[in-house]
Every structure is written in C-alpha cells, then in structure tokens.
Predict the 3D structure of the following.
Amino acid sequence: MNIVVLAGGLSPERDVSLVTGSNVCRALRKNGHQVILMDVFMGREGEDVAHWFEKSEEVSAAVTAIAETAPDLEAVKASRADQSDCFFGPNVIALCQTADIVFMALHGENGENGKIQAAFDLFGIRYTGSDYLSSAIAMNKNLAKKVLAAGGVPVPRGFAVKKGAQNVEQPAFPCVVKPCCGGSSIGVSIVNDRKEYEAALEEAFKWEDEIVVEQYIQGREFSICVIDGKALPVIEIAPINGWYDYKNKYQAGSTIETCPAELSEAETVRMQHYAEQAASAIGLDTYSRMDFLMDEDGKMYCLEANTLPGMTPTSLIPQEAAAIGIGYEQLCEQLISISLEKREKRA
C-alpha cells in the first residue's frame, strides 16, 4: 500500500510524534509498503504529488531522539517556509488523498482532539485510529471523566477550572493540577499547599485555558492498551526518580516498566475489564491506551484515555504487544488492518 505517516504538528508533544512517526515509517517499509513520513505542519514543497511514493526517501536521523523538555513551538512556526497560518502544510492534504491510508502518528492537540479526523472524513481520507467524536471526547479530560464515570469506570474526584473564571470549588491537598487537553504530563503539577496550588494553576494555564484539578492518589501506576475491544497485558510504570513526568516518559532508563505487571489474577482481570469498559464508553473502537492508578487498598482509578498512543522506543503499547508475541512491525500492520475494517463498517 501507499501510506502517509503523519507526524509533527504544533502540539507540545511534537518531538514525541516525530519519533513515533519515524519508527512507524521504518516498520511499514520493512513490511513492504511505500511510505512517506510527513510533518503535518511543515508539509512539503513541490509538484507531481502522485509520484512521490515512487521515490520516497529514507527517514531522517534527526527525529530519533526526544529532548528532556517540550519543543519551542514559536521557533517551529517561524521555520515554516511559506509562513502560512494554515495548520496543514503545503501538499499535506493532496498527498494524503493519494494514499491508501494515513497512519496517524500525531500526539496532543490537533492530532488527538478529533479536528484532523473530522477534516479527513470530509476529504474522504482513510486514517488509523478512532473517529473524530470519540477522539474529541477522550482529549478533554473533564468531559472524558464524566463519560467514564457514567459508564461505570472509577475515576478520581476533581473539578475543572477555566482561565479568568471565579474558582468556587477548592481542592483538598495534596492534589494534581493539569491541563484539560494536554498530554505527556506537560504542565502537570503535584501540589501540597495553597502556595504550590497557585503556582501550579499559573503553570497549567500557560498551556491551556481550561485545567483539571484532581485528588492525589498515592499508589502504583499502570497502563493498558485496548485493541479492537480487547485489552493487552497490563504494564506497570515505576519511575526511578520522581513521578512519571515528560522526562521520565521519554528518556531511556528513567523508568522501570514491568509487563505483565505483578498483580494478582483477579486484579489483572479487573483492570483489563475497566480498560475495555473505558474504551467502549468513549467509543474508541480501534486502539487506545488507558492509564490507571491503584492505591494501597487496591482501589483502581482510570486517569485518562489516549487515542493515539506513542510508538517510540520507550512507549508502552509496543511493550504490551511484545508480551504476547506481537512484534513492532506486526503491531503496525495490525493497527492499519483494524482501522480499515472499522472505517468500512462506519461508511
């Protein structure tokens, strides 16, 4: 097949997306496909788009590592050749229209919030992952929590705060403050008192105009990928230092990841059930990843749903798949196959 791997963009998770895209591009080429890695914001100048697949170049080595901090997005904007305000770079739509499918390697805003999915539906472009509505619900942590709770999935207590609005609800300390639609733990703070809370609000509002304040849960952290309605093995995440922030997520050796997680059979089944239940409640029918915490009493909480899980060297979904004998190249192929099948059913 002719496949566009779409990555980059203007999310704080831009660098993560580019590494995901590079890995997926290599894997799909090993599988025999003609593949082009495309930065959705930068695009590509030139004509004769229909023949680009025949001369697709090797993946650049410049997108194989993730820095310890989020990228400077203003510098990214300034580096675009045509300086257009359009989110889609030159020839992105035209190229995607010629592809058999677009592999969505985007993370964060305008990748996981359903906007690109909705645009692609209008253009008749086939893509991997869930549709625009389920993507939009999952991206908004405040809305997603309400949907999950209504679907019987346990979630932390909390409330949302909008920038400039009077905050009526007050948190109980300790608590967690995080952007409502962000990812990769960017802008997230764990706070213990009023002074730290005010500083955390200021930091979170740098990234978005709506944030979520949740109860802090002391316990073990887990993640579960759900593919086509079926949960993969549970993986436990234990940072060596601190908590599972941006640095610990993407710097190799920063976190101990155990898959399958050391849980009792009953705990494993219960958490996998919650993950499947969460995916169903939101409508994530292709693949997704659910993040959980379990406290000292064994109570489980679903923190959020990720609609386009990372596929970097330290990402969790490839590790979970490997635990049941599914290699990286096979996983990429499976995600494409399921996405095409689901699209046919929706049409």
Remarks:
- Residues 172 and 215 are 7 Å apart (CA to CA).
- The chain is about 35% helix and 20% strand.
- The two ends are 21 Å apart (CA to CA).
